[in-house]
Design goal:
Layout: E1 3-7, E2 18-26, E3 29-32, H1 37-42, H2 47-53, E4 63-67, E5 76-84, H3 94-107, E6 113-117, H4 123-136, H5 149-154, E7 165-169, H6 176-200, H7 208-222, E8 225-229, H8 231-237, H9 240-246, E9 254-260, E10 268-279, H10 299-314, E11 319-329, E12 341-343, E13 349-351, H11 359-372, E14 377-382, H12 386-392, E15 397-401, H13 404-417, E16 421-423, E17 441-442, H14 450-459, E18 468-472, E19 478-479, E20 490-491, H15 496-507
Parallel strand pairs: 1-7, 2-5, 2-6, 6-7, 10-11, 10-14, 13-17, 14-18, 15-16
Antiparallel strand pairs: 2-3, 4-5, 8-9, 9-11, 12-13, 15-18, 19-20
Helix pairs in contact: 3-4, 4-6, 6-10, 7-10, 9-11, 10-15, 11-14, 13-15
The chain binds ligand BES, manganese (II) ion (MN) and zinc ion (ZN).
């Protein structure tokens, strides 16, 4: 991964391939942001004019590269847009800093070292710049995650090497707060990037067993406790939902429990992830145009796994238990048919009306199992419904919950870490649409509000009294259009930063 160093050197004298400065949109044209004073001086105090002449406006995400001036060590100056300049006396918004740093890091891919001279007023700003830069400096390397050496060797001529080193200027390396901010950013970005790697790995190289193996390997390294239920154990244990979805595939399903615990923890958080390593739709096969990106259907499980490792790396004073419901949804002679009735781990029966509504089936079993341990709160994360993408678009995830205060907290936390989300309801009137004449429930109901129907289905498998929330990340999990800010094309690592902050807040006793 890209390395990060803190430095109080002048932006003029630090040796680097490029020095990154911020430019904001002012009332009368672009303005150079604080942090770039030495660079501006080398341009005779005319950097804003030079940038304006080059067409720069300071708009969010805009990148302008220009040759350096005499007196600067770096041969190139990269000016990155910060969006509207803050009002006098106000600082820059954390998300504006993250995005600008990310866009700059992407523009420097292939380079060795970037000196980031963005506006850093305090350790919080340093954290934002570090996070954005490390998240922007990402590229998927084929085969890196699954020990597929041959593929790794042939692979990544495609995506180019990410920027190798980020030097963060204006950040005192020996200051406790700055140091902690940098360490957190490094751990967090590494784990978001771990989730991205897993999501980007093609389904033939990451089936449920290989995903479970990747968990075991990381668990060994980070001292996590694991338990893997294979298809035999799942069958014996009565996990009808996970088995019902996985039985059509040559690659059998797994349920993985991966747990971080702290000896002084007072609270336990259970995280449940949808881990469909490929979603063909099953017998209710998806049409062409809807299946090309379905390797991303394990993004929830990837986010949960990454969060547990992050909690361990950060040594949080909270227990975090991850449940990964892993299966491949395929059509075959052994696949579940539309109309089949499954007996779930909870004992409830479900009529499978549509085999493409598989996520809720694997999650149901994992949720029931997670509830048995009586965690203080449960959050499931899933690329669950196309309906949620229609409702909220490609950058915002939906939050549903059986506890309004918890839903509000999650929405606030997401905003704080720069993830777009929106609270969604679980309207009682939709419940009857999943009634079945032959089972306790059907796995599909009213089409309108399909994202909420899925949430209502999941709620049936959450123990009464348990505090539970459901994040439907179908929109933001996988970026099919161009990269922006610190978000690459492909797997994004959606929800990892929200879940890590939730774990931190729980550790600090900030939540209920
Ligand atoms: N994995 C899909 C949902 C999805 C859609 C994720 C687009 C990412 C992008 C899920 O398993 C699915 O197929 N859901 C169906 C449910 C329907 C059959 C009730 C859907 O949303 O169409
Ligand atoms: Mn599906
Ligand atoms: Zn799916």
């Amino acid at each position: 991964m890209t390395s990060l160093t803190l430095s109080t050197s002048s932006a003029a004298t630090l040796r680097a391939d490029a020095v990154v400065v911020g430019v904001a949109k002012g009332a009368k044209g672009p303005v150079v942001a604080p942090g770039a004073e030495a660079v501006d001086k080398a341009f005779g105090g005319k950097l804003a004019t030079v940038l304006e002449t080059l067409g720069a406006t300071g708009a969010d995400g805009e990148v302008t590269k220009l040759p350096s001036a005499t007196g600067l060590k770096a041969p190139v100056v990269l000016a990155v847009g910060l969006g509207d300049a803050p009002a006098k006396g106000d600082g820059y918004d954390a998300e504006a800093l993250r995005r600008a740093a990310g866009a700059a890091a992407r523009a420097l891919s292939g380079s060795k070292k970037g000196a980031f001279a963005l506006p850093v007023a305090d350790a919080g700003d340093a954290a934002a710049v570090a996070e954005g830069a490390l998240l922007g400096a990402y590229s998927y390397k084929a085969g890196q995650n699954n020990g597929d050496a041959k593929n790794a060797k042939n692979g990544n001529k495609k995506n180019g090497a990410p920027l190798a080193e980020v030097a963060l200027l204006g950040a005192k390396p020996r200051d406790k707060e700055f140091k902690a901010a940098a360490e957190r950013a490094i751990a967090l970005a590494a784990e978001v990037n771990r989730a991205r790697d897993l999501i980007n790995t093609p389904s033939n190289l990451l089936n449920p067993a290989l995903f479970a193996a990747a968990v075991l390997e990381a668990a060994k390294e980070h001292g996590l406790k694991t338990e893997v239920l294979d298809e035999k154990a799942l069958k014996k244990g009565g996990y009808g939902g996970i088995m019902g979805v996985g039985q059509g595939s040559q690659a059998p399903p797994r349920l993985v429990r991966v747990a971080y615990s702290h000896p002084k923890a007072e609270k336990t958080l259970a995280l449940v992830g949808k881990g469909i390593t490929y979603d063909s739709g099953g017998i209710s096969l998806k049409p062409a145009g809807h299946n090309e990106t379905m390797k991303c259907d394990m993004s929830g499980a990837a986010a949960v796994f990454a969060t547990v490792v992050a909690a361990a790396k950060l040594g949080l004073r909270v227990n975090v238990t991850g449940w990964l419901a892993l299966a491949e949804n395929m059509p075959s002679g052994s696949a579940t048919r539309p109309g089949d009735v499954l007996t779930m781990y909870s004992g409830k029966t479900v009529e499978v009306l549509n085999t493409d509504a598989e996520g809720r089936l694997v999650l149901a079993d994992a949720l029931t199992r997670a509830c048995e341990e009586k965690p203080d709160a449960i959050v499931d994360v899933a690329t669950l419904t196309g309906a949620m993408v229609f409702a909220l678009g490609h950058r915002t995830f939906g939050i549903m919950a059986n506890d309004e205060a918890f839903r509000t907290s999650l929405h606030e936390i997401a905003g704080e870490v720069g993830e777009q989300s929106w609270p969604m309801p679980l309207p009682g009137d939709l419940r009857k649409s999943i009634d079945s004449p032959v089972a306790d429930l059907a796995n599909m109901g009213e089409r309108m509000g399909g994202g909420l129907v899925a949430g209502i289905f999941l709620k049936e498998f959450v123990e009464d009294g348990a505090v539970w929330a459901h994040l439907d990340i179908a929109g933001p999990a996988f970026n099919e259009s161009g990269p922006f800010g610190y978000t690459p094309k492909g797997g994004t690592g959606s929800a990892v930063r929200t879940l890590v902050r939730l774990a931190e807040r729980t550790a600090d006793g900030d939540l209920g």
